[in-house]
Structure formats: C-alpha cells, structure tokens
Amino acid sequence: SDHMENIYGYLMKYTNLVTGWQYRFFVLNNDAGLLEYFVNEQSRHLKPRGTLQLAGAVISPSDEDSHTFTVNAASGEQYKLRATDAKERQHWVSRLQICTQHHTEAIGKNNPPLKSRSFSLASQGSANSPGVQRRPSQNAVSFFNVGHHRLPTGKRVPIMQPDHLVDVREMMSQAEGQQRDLIRSIECLPVSGHLTSLDQDLLMLKATSMATMNCLNDCFHILQLQHASQQKGSLPAGTTISWLEPKISLPNHFKNGAAQNFPAEINKPASVREEQTITEPCQLTREPEEINPDEELEDICDDKEDDLGAVEEQRSVILHLLSQLKLGMDLTRVVLPTFILEKRSLLEMYADFMSHPDLFIAITNGTTPEERMIRFVEYYLTSFHEGRKGAIAKKPYNPIIGETFHCSWRMPKSDVATDASSNFPARSPSEQVTLSKDTEGQAELDYYTVKFVAEQVSHHPPVSGFYAECVERKMCVNAHVWTKSKFLGMSIGVTMVGEGILSLLEHGEEYTFSLPCAYARSILTVPWVELGGKVNINCAKTGYSASINFHTKPFYGGKLHRVTGEVKQNMTNMVVCRVQGEWNSVLEFTYSNGETKYVDLTKLSVTRKRVRPLEKQGPFESRRLWQHVTESLRDGDIDKATEHKRALEERQRNEERLRAETETPWCTKYFLKEGDGWVYHKPLWKTVSAAQTQQTDTN
C-alpha cells in the first residue's frame, strides 16, 4: 500500500504508422484503477483522451529496447509506451503492476463464491478510449454470458481418482461443445452494424477461449500420463509429455478473421488458372539446365520491406490466427496470411546472403590457414545484414517443391582484397587446364564470376539446397537447410537445421559451418527480427575453428543484435582473433598482434546480383513462379495476392497427393541426396578432379 500513490508524467505513446510516437501526459489513478492520458499537462482538467481499466491487465516491458513497455488491458486494447530511460520505465512498470494486482484481487474479493456467474473480457471503462467507440447495445456483455465455476472458499480439492478422469473428460467435452457454439455464434454475426463478428472484444474472447481449451486439453493429457505412470510404477522409456496438436483445424487462409471464400473457377484470372494447370513437375524435363551468366542482367528490383500498414490493418486476422496456435506448435503446415509476406522466395533470400562476393572470393587469397579462417568469419558475419530486407520482420515465400533460383555476381578483380605481402605464384600446367566450357575465353576478363543455384528438394520436411562457386578461384560452397518454425507466444522462432561446406580447392581445405536461429519478435505490434544461438566453423585439415554467439536481447537492458566470437587454433587452444558488435551495424575484429579493425555494415558496398529476365526463366524458377503474387503485393492488392498464392499451394498439394497415390518418388533437378544431406550434382571439386585426371592422362 505504500506504493499505491498516484503518479503522473510525460510518456511517448505509439499512435499509428502515420503519426508515430507522440508525447502524452499520463496519470495513474490508483483509487479507480485507471491509466488515463491527456494531450498535455495543461489539459489535465479536461476529459481524458484515453482510459484503460487496469484490473486484469498485463504490464510488459518490451524486448525491443530498455525504454519501451506495453499495457495490455483485459478488453484487448493496448497502449505501447516509451519512457525517457530504463529507470523511468521500471518506475512506471512497477507502479502499474502494483495497481493492477490490487484491483484484480479486489474484484475476486468483492464477488461472492457463487455456483456460477457471468463475466466478460470487455472492460466497462474501455469505452472512454478513442479506439473503442461502442454504444451500450454493442457491448459484448449484453450478447454473451459465459459461465465458470468457483470452488467454495476453504474447500480443499480432493486428489484425483482414476474414475474421476472420466468425469473430467465428459465435462471438458461439454465445455468444448459450448466453446464451439460460442465461436460459431460470433462468426455468424454480420460484418457491419451495432455488433459485428469483427468486434475487438469478441475477437479477444475467441482467442482466449481457444487458448483456455487448448491449455485444459494439455493438462488433461498430463494427468492421463501421470495416472498411467502410477499404475505401472513409472513412465515407459522414451515417453515424453509434449504439446498436443490443436483440436480445431486451421483454415487455409483468413480474411478479416474468417475463412476466405474465393470466386468460382470461371471468375479466376487467367494467371491463376495457369498456375493451377502447369504440368506436374516430374513430367517436365528434370535434366539440369546450364545457365549462361551472359544471359543474366543486373537486378533492378529493390523491394525493401519497411511498410507495416497492412499488418496494422489486418490486426484482427492476426488475433484470429493466434487464437488457434499454441506454445511450441510446429508452424510448418500452417498457412500464414499473405500480408505478412515479403516479396521474394526463401531461395532468393539465401542468394542475398552472398551479396558481398568480394569478401567471399578474398577468403582463398589468405596466405596462411589462420588468415583464411579469419577471412571466412568476416565474410560469414557480414552476410546476414543484406540477407534481411529492412528491419521489419516479414516472411519470404515458402518455396514449393521443385522450385529453383539462379543468379550470379560479377566482381572486378581489382576490388578483391589480397595480402600485400603475398605474390600469388603462377599457375602450374595442371591448374591451367580448362575446367569447363563456362571458362573458355575468360582469361582476358578483368572480373570474377560467382554463380549461385538453389532448389527446394523436399516439401515435408521443407529442405532447401543451395550451391555457389567461383571457378576462377577454385572455391565453392554447398549447403542444405531445413527450416523449422515454432510459435513462442508473442514471437515466432525459426531453427535452421543443416550444414554448409566451403571448399577452397587451391588449398585442399573444407570449412563446415551452421546457421543461427531467427526470431520474429513483437508480432502483434511492430514485428522485428533478431538472430540467436551458437554456431561453429571448423576446418579439420588446418585445426582452426571459430565459435560465434548470436545473443538475443535479455528481458531487462542489453543491446539488440549483439554478436561475439573467437577464432582459435585447436592444437594450442590459442585465440587468434576476437569479434564483437552487432551483426547489422558495426563489427569489431581484434587480432592476436593487437591490431583492431572495424567493419561498418551499413556502409559496406553491396554487389547487385544478376538474374535472367522473367521471359527467359523456366516455369519453376522463383521469380517467374511467384510473379503474380509479387506484383499483387507491390500493388497493395492483398486479396489478389492471396488468391495467386493459394493457387500455387493448391497445385502443390494436388501433385503431392497424386505422387502418393501412384507411389511416384520426387525427382530433384540439381541436388542429390547423400546421407543426411544434399549435394549439388556437379560440384566444383568433382570438375577439378576430373580435369586434373584428364590432364595427367594426356601427359
């Protein structure tokens, strides 16, 4: 009670994308349990611009920075606020939490323990907020009465007996039926009028009721396992208590919180009908296609993903989707709304990690194993910044099976770093042999060419393979990645399962590496991306390794996007290089000789990739395959983009079903399965080995 004083002061409040952050004068009214705000202190005697009831609210410090926090009212309304510093944020958060707890407990004490009573998530005071303009007849309380039971005070809950599980199951079945009826009643409401199916309170009621039933089902599942263990003495070996799949199926797409209905086939655009009738991929030629880099043109697309307007407009869709997800749920088979997509395929995103080909080629120019490992770490850490298109967390297209992406980069030889003390020896006769017809006539060229190809080799699980090579420098990288997405509450985590191998054929070295996890944070407000986890880079031949940590932001304080790492010689355990900084800002490299180098990623030059024009691309190349979705997103036509996206996914499901019925295996085009990984069908190390063997036979 000592901390229950009224406090007031200026905070910044996030209004909308147009107005952004604005200073407002806030007052915490502890007696009434209200958080009110005014335009300024002088207007405090006037009616508040907005009011939140704190009973049942959740006060959360944001993980974006040390100044921001959110107040989530039980009505579903949210204030996103920012203090001047971390100390002031903590002052407001602690006082708000104390007030919230006091008034939440007071509600419980003031309501007698009846057998059942009615309640609503709608806050009576929320009507004062400018964001909730509701007539009395519109209040969800007047429409729904949801009963819940409370045990009499002081009555002890008896230990659950085996036969009681049957009673619990019956009660839960009744509750599930009532919950389904509730959702059905809400969704049957009109889309306009006094009380609509898009009412914010009703959407929150749907989300909360669904989450409650999912939680109860999980608890019942755990009780069953405990009961089984009591009967058998212990749980069977290998038994795990895991999250259950949701009982209510997810619609394929959502529009304004409801399942989306698409026009009849005859009304569909010709491009959609074309997407659905492309010949099944395995019936096309699966022979690898040799892409001529001379046919590729410098890319002029610059789709920065900084627009959040659609996300704000489609908030009800996100709430509807979240109401059917649960913690730990695998999102692999969940079709996400179209408006959160960025305008490129995941395969093209992997290519954008190669946007600094000068640093990539410079790896093999290192004169010692130590220098080559350090150069690889420098290149690795600079690749993620350009791989993300803007700071906003949007999701690239999920590649369909058989989808491919090709591109290349041309890098002037004068721009590739070499060691000043190093004079590269002349090529030996065996090294001067022509490796392939791609290199014929390139001896006089003043640039290096890096070629890239990616293919979606599996649909379930979703696995992508990608390969890049620079023939002139005899280096290549081969990788396969399985993306596993999980719902983590207010964020989504993506684990990149797989491995990559960089081969420096001039030195006979292979560097194995992995990729960090990615997280989309604050998915209900302004979503943003951070990387997390530990990755390792190893070269077995030289004995050098690197350990890199991508740090996620702690709950209190700390910096965003922080990364630390070290390179060491395994035999002596001596650290030869340390790195720290932010993977999207400035990196600091400190070497064993005491020298320090800073790399400002925001000023690092980016080499544009070269891509064939759409008319020269095959039907399953990423840009041509997704062109109608991309065009619709650029035009801001979400419904049309959703329709094109649905057509592609529907075709993929039909093809998968047909292959299952005919027991026809999928045939990949560029990558071959080897063990647990996927390898490019014609890697450079095979080409070089074959060329050297041929040269030996000739001699």
Properties at a glance:
699 residues, alpha+beta, PH-domain like, Porin, 13-stranded antiparallel β-sheet, globular, lipid transport, transport, OSBP_sf, PH_domain, acetylation
Task: Provide an overview of this structure.
The structure is a single chain. The chain is α+β, with helices and mostly antiparallel strands and 699 residues long. Among the domains are: 7-108, PH-domain like (Roll), CATH 2.30.29.30; 328-416 and 446-686, Porin, CATH 2.40.160. The protein has 13 helices and 30 strands. The strands form 7 sheets. Strands 15, 16, 17, 18, 19, 20, 21, 22, 23, 24, 25, 26 and 27 form a 13-stranded antiparallel β-sheet that branches. A hairpin with a 4-residue loop joins strand 16 and strand 17. Helix 2 packs antiparallel against helix 3 (200-232) and helix 11 (627-634) runs antiparallel to helix 12 (638-662).
